[in-house]
Write a structure and sequence with these properties.
The complex is a heterotrimer of chains A (403), B (259) and C (348). Chain A is an alpha+beta fold. Chain A is built from 12 helices and 10 strands. In chain A, the strands form 3 sheets. A 4-stranded mixed β-sheet of chain A has the order 1-4-5-8. In chain A, strands 2-3-7-6 form a 4-stranded antiparallel β-sheet, covered by helices on one side. Chain A is globular, with a radius of gyration of 21 Å. The model of chain A has no long low-confidence stretch (mean pLDDT 97). Chain B is α/β, with parallel strands linked by helices and 259 residues long. Chain B has a single domain (2-205), classed as HUPs (Rossmann fold). Chain B is built from 6 helices and 15 strands. Chain C folds into 2 domains: 6-187, 3-Layer(aba) Sandwich (Rossmann fold); 209-347, Rossmann fold, CATH 3.40.50.1220. Helix content of chain C is 32%, strand content 26%. Chain C has 9 helices and 18 strands. In chain C, a hairpin with a 2-residue loop joins β2 (12-13) and β3. The chains are: A alpha+beta (403), B alpha/beta (259), C alpha/beta (348). Chains in contact: A-B, A-C, B-C. At the B-C interface, α3, α4, β9, β10 and β11 of B face α3, α4, β7, β9 and β10 of C.
């Protein structure tokens, strides 16, 4: 059992860290305050290959493994959550689903341009009236000859106004006895007639990002855009979340690390009662807890990444990693603010942004509560993983590196 | 073109470097490519992109001094050579330059060899000029831009960053060039480069491979210490007039040697 | 036959000696106390006889100089051949150079010619057992080393301003010997094509010296605004006048201009100059804070500066606690006085 990162992984970590710290770090506060996504971020991440990091070279990707994806997400979110959100939706929820479920034609049309960063992908599951209750999805796709007609609205969609493609899950069979079986997944070009999109402002966090809504009015999509079979939508959505959650878990780990590093730095600089505040036990306690959270979160997400590499089903492990890391990142950020005192309450320092960003991750990609139910379900054996018709491909270096 | 870039492996600049029991230590801070050398690698790669050819990265160091070389490979260098021999331990800049000159000669037909301005451990900054002198090649140091390169005609023109301003110099190839930051920010390693670098088998050349026999180093560091701890003692200056106070301060500042 | 053991190289640019070159003579004089004999200077370039005479006046007993046309512009190759040739012939113990771009390169190449060691950027010297023990900062100044060279000559470049400038005695005389160049123009592989003076301002990030202004920069009731100026603009106008003074001091020092958040927020100066938690974190050798109170978030941006000087009217300002030197006074009086004092002192 190896607990150290190999050379390749270390180099990936260093490279992404360098990019995030050098190019995003200096400007992120400004964009967070403005509530805008810096226009250069997506093109630059595309240029550096980060948007295709763990996809095979033959599909336009960079050929790295799933652990590398996690490492990259940790480094991105240590600078700002919005960078990792890009990876969550473009890669985790969308591109990896195409890798897993897509037909060769779909891979050609959608995956390759996304891997190259020529097109940006997003994920449309949540609706104004359906979040945790996925079965409550109301958007519809009505089959008409060799097309589907889409109607409905998706909300809280990251990169809604920036993306070119959306992987959406909508209802094709309103009469299915079990509503879970009435859902179908599609990949949709967002420049099709009848699609409107807009930004959502006024969010507590991830303000330097892009969150929005998509509206479909009689949008015609060819059957070739359907992912998997009719009725497989729910299973596909859940497998998308296995990958999206992995990126969230890895990212939240980076957020814990950022809180920890900021706290250690401040505790050594700030003086009170005649000494640096790092000498006080209650401050030390907070830092000790951050260390505990960081190391545990890290091991959990790396295990999930390793399992993906090995081709092992990891729904339970990824859910555990996401739940643990996101809850812990909120706690860590809160304590980091406390260590900074009044200065932590001001956006002069980064820690208040960490807190606001951390809260979002406890809600999306499965609320903390949903994950608790999942974990109890596994432990009590009330829940078992459903067999998937298509599994996430095992990481095979030969296959990944060659054209 | 046949291009060489010479790099050194040093402790990370962020590392806490202290002396313990007379020895320099940096704890478990990583060893990295000398930051100035990244600029040299970048320049080498840009020249390759403009004029074709290949770039070989070479480094004098211990057998496990591969981080620096691998980083350069990951940035895009085509091949690497590590030069290692017990005889080179504690090498001073003269010996290092002799070793590098021998390696460059052994490689043969090299047009250009790039160096970073100085290594952040020894801060000597002489290796580039000394290697050039050993080879009988011109040395272009403190280069901030390569304004002209004609491999066929065998000529090069550079801009140098001197205290007094920018100087333009013409010269003949083959040449040694050492660069400063203005030359352009180094690229990140690409993912493909990272894969290549981690799989790379890096040949090691010993003293015998270079047909060299170096002397003992002329320069040694018999003592190395932590700088004296600076307790801030605030001195409030006073005087009869602003002029007098100012003159007092100026003398103090000059004594501090911070100008 | 010249037998002085301690030599110095006088660096010059466009016929003017680099002032740091004179510092080598005081260091050389210290070494002659240990090694005996006098100091020999070497200088080459176009019309350097004046410089040669100055070297005598600063304390060298004799000077080798060359005005060969190949030396019109400094190029390391021919200069090194000249110096190496002279050193081979006369066998000095030590050759001192100022650490300029030229001095460093020259010393490096002479080291190769003479197969000897180089000790660059030295801040202190002593002699032990016939060897010079040179103190030099290493690891970017994090540590201090003592270095020794076992071969001869010992080539040492001295950090600028680490050693004093000797007194000038224009009554002194000595031997001036002209020497020929060693390399012919055809043998030299480089040509200097041209040169442009640097005029761009110093960037805050890399600056070794920074002069910063804070809220206090606008506080000069004695300064009368132009007639008819709107009240709301008077404060900014006063601040800009204040920043002019700061800019002049910065120029005299070759420094960058910084500002506190208070000054930027008040509109006195653009954001790119802001030093602090928000803004740039800097670590210059010298930081002069004018009219800055020194709140913790400004401190976060400059606390690792090597030497901090604070100028503030308020003796209780927190900045004084972190400053090495403090002046309690009006920056409108002190800053111009400083500018003048530095100008006078640095040009001599």
């Amino acid at each position: 059992m190896e607990f150290t990162l190999n050379e390749e992984h270390r180099m990936v970590q260093k490279m992404v860290r360098g990019f995030a710290q050098n190019e995003i770090g200096p400007i992120i506060k400004e964009f967070d305050r403005k509530g805008e996504m810096a226009p250069f971020i997506l093109p630059r991440m595309a240029e550096l290959g980060i948007l295709g990091i763990c996809l095979p070279v033959r599909y336009g990707g960079q050929g790295m493994d799933y652990v590398s994806l996690g490492l990259a997400c940790e480094e991105l979110e240590a600078v700002d959550s919005t960078l990792r959100v890009v990876m969550s939706v473009h890669m985790g929820l969308n591109s990896m689903a195409l890798l897993q479920w897509g037909t060769p034609e779909q891979k050609e049309r959608f995956l390759i341009p996304q891997a190259r960063g020529e097109r940006i992908g997003c994920f449309g599951l949540t609706e104004p009236g359906a979040g945790s209750d996925v079965a409550g999805i109301a958007s519809t796709a009505r089959r008409k000859n060799d097309q589907y007609i889409l109607n409905g609205e998706k909300m809280w969609i990251s990169l809604a106004t920036k993306a070119d493609h959306a992987l959406i899950v909508v209802r094709t069979d309103p009469d299915a006895p079990d509503p879970h079986d009435g859902l179908t997944a599609f990949i949709v070009e967002l420049d099709r007639a009848g699609i409107k999109k807009g930004d959502i402002h006024g969010k507590l966090g991830v303000r330097a990002g892009s969150t929005g809504w998509l509206s479909f009015q009689d949008v015609e999509v060819p059957t070739e855009n359907r992912i998997g079979q009719e009725g497989e939508g729910f299973k596909i959505a859940m497998s998308c979340l296995d990958n999206g959650r992995y990126t969230v878990a890895a990212g939240a780990t980076g957020l814990i690390r950022a809180s920890l590093e900021a706290s250690v730095k401040y505790a050594k600089e700030r003086q009170a009662f005649g000494r640096e505040i790092g000498k006080f036990q209650l401050v030390q306690q907070k830092i000790a807890h951050m260390v505990k959270s960081y190391e545990a979160a890290r091991l959990l997400y790396l295990r999930a990444g390793w399992m993906k590499n090995e081709g092992m089903r990891n729904t339970r492990e990824t859910s555990l990693a996401k739940w643990f890391a996101t809850d812990a990142s909120f706690e860590a950020a809160s304590e980091a603010i406390q260590i900074h005192g009044a200065y932590g309450y001001s956006d002069e320092y980064d820690v208040e942004r960490y807190l606001r960003n951390a809260k979002g991750a406890i809600i999306y990609e499965g609320t903390s509560e949903i994950h608790q139910l999942m974990q109890a379900g596994y432990a009590l054996e009330y829940r078992q993983d459903v067999h998937l018709r298509c599994e996430l491909p095992v990481y095979d270096a030969e296959f990944w590196h060659n054209d | 073109m046949k291009i060489v870039v010479c790099v050194k492996q040093v402790p990370d600049t962020a590392a806490k470097v202290v002396v313990e029991d007379g020895q320099v230590t940096w704890g478990d801070a990583p060893l990295v490519i000398n930051p100035w050398d990244e600029y040299a690698v970048e320049t080498a790669l840009l020249q390759q992109e403009a004029h074709g050819g290949d770039v070989t990265v070479i480094s004098v160091g211990g057998e496990d001094a591969k981080e620096a070389v691998k980083h350069a490979l990951a940035m895009g260098c085509d091949s690497a050579i590590l030069i290692s021999d017990p005889a080179f331990e504690n090498a001073d800049s003269l010996i290092t330059s002799q070793v590098l000159a021998a390696a460059i000669e052994k490689m043969g037909d090299v047009d250009l060899a790039f160096f970073g301005r100085q290594a952040i451990d020894g801060d000597v900054g002489a290796t580039a000029a000394q290697t050039a002198r050993g080879l009988g090649w011109p040395a272009f140091t403190l280069v901030s831009a390569i304004s002209g390169l004609d491999p066929d005609a065998g000529t090069i023109q550079v801009e140098r960053s001197l205290e007094e301003g920018r100087q333009v110099v013409d010269g003949k190839l083959p040449a040694i060039v050492s660069v400063v930051k203005d030359i352009g920010e180094p690229r990140y390693p690409s993912f493909m480069g990272i894969r290549k670098a981690s799989r790379a088998e890096i040949p090691i050349w010993s003293q015998a491979d270079l047909s060299l026999e170096v002397a003992n180093p002329a320069v040694t560091w018999p003592e190395i210490t932590n700088p004296p701890k600076r307790e801030i003692v605030t001195e409030i200056l006073s005087g009869d007039s602003p002029k007098e106070i100012a003159e007092t301060l100026v003398e103090k500042i000059l004594e501090e040697q911070v100008l | 036959m010249m037998t002085n053991k301690i030599w110095v190289y006088i660096d010059q640019f466009k016929g003017e000696a680099i002032p740091a070159s004179w510092e080598t003579i005081s260091a050389a004089q210290y070494l002659t106390e240990q090694y005996g004999g006098g100091v020999t200077a070497v200088v080459a370039g176009s019309q350097v006889q004046e410089i040669a005479k100055q070297a005598i006046q600063y304390g060298a007993e004799e000077v080798f100089y060359s005005e060969d046309s190949t030396f019109d512009e400094f190029r390391a190759e021919p200069y090194a051949s000249l110096l190496s040739g002279l050193a081979k012939e006369h066998g000095p113990e030590v050759i001192l150079f100022p650490t300029t771009s030229r001095g460093r390169e020259l010393a490096a190449m002479v080291a190769v010619d003479l197969k000897t060691g180089l000790l660059p950027d030295v801040t202190a010297l002593e002699v032990q057992d016939g060897n010079v023990v040179a103190t030099r900062p290493v690891y970017a100044g994090k540590l201090l080393s003592k270095a020794v060279c076992s071969t001869r000559p010992q080539l040492i470049t001295l950090r600028v301003r680490a050693f004093p400038t000797p007194d000038l005695d224009d009554s002194k005389t000595g031997n001036l010997t002209e020497v020929p160049a060693v390399m012919s123009e055809d043998d030299i592989l480089t040509k200097v094509a041209g040169y442009t003076e640097s005029s761009r301002g110093v960037s805050l990030n890399d600056a070794a010296v920074i002069v910063s202004g804070g809220r206090g920069v606008s506080n000069n009731p004695a300064l009368n605004p132009p007639d008819g100026m709107d009240e709301s603009q008077v404060e900014i106008w006063r601040a800009q006048e204040g920043f002019k003074l700061i800019g002049e001091l910065a120029e005299a020092l070759g420094a960058a201009v910084g500002a506190s958040r208070a000054a930027v927020d008040a509109g006195y100066i653009p954001y790119d100059h802001q030093v602090g938690q928000t803004g740039k974190v800097v670590s210059p050798d010298l930081y002069i804070a004018c009219g800055i109170s020194g709140a913790i978030q400004h401190q976060a941006g400059m606390r690792t500066s090597k030497v901090i000087v604070a100028i503030n009217k308020d003796p209780e300002a927190p900045i004084f606690r972190m400053a090495r030197y403090g002046i309690v006074g009006d920056l409108y009086d002190v800053v111009p006085a400083l500018t003048e004092a530095f100008r006078n002192r640095l040009s001599s």
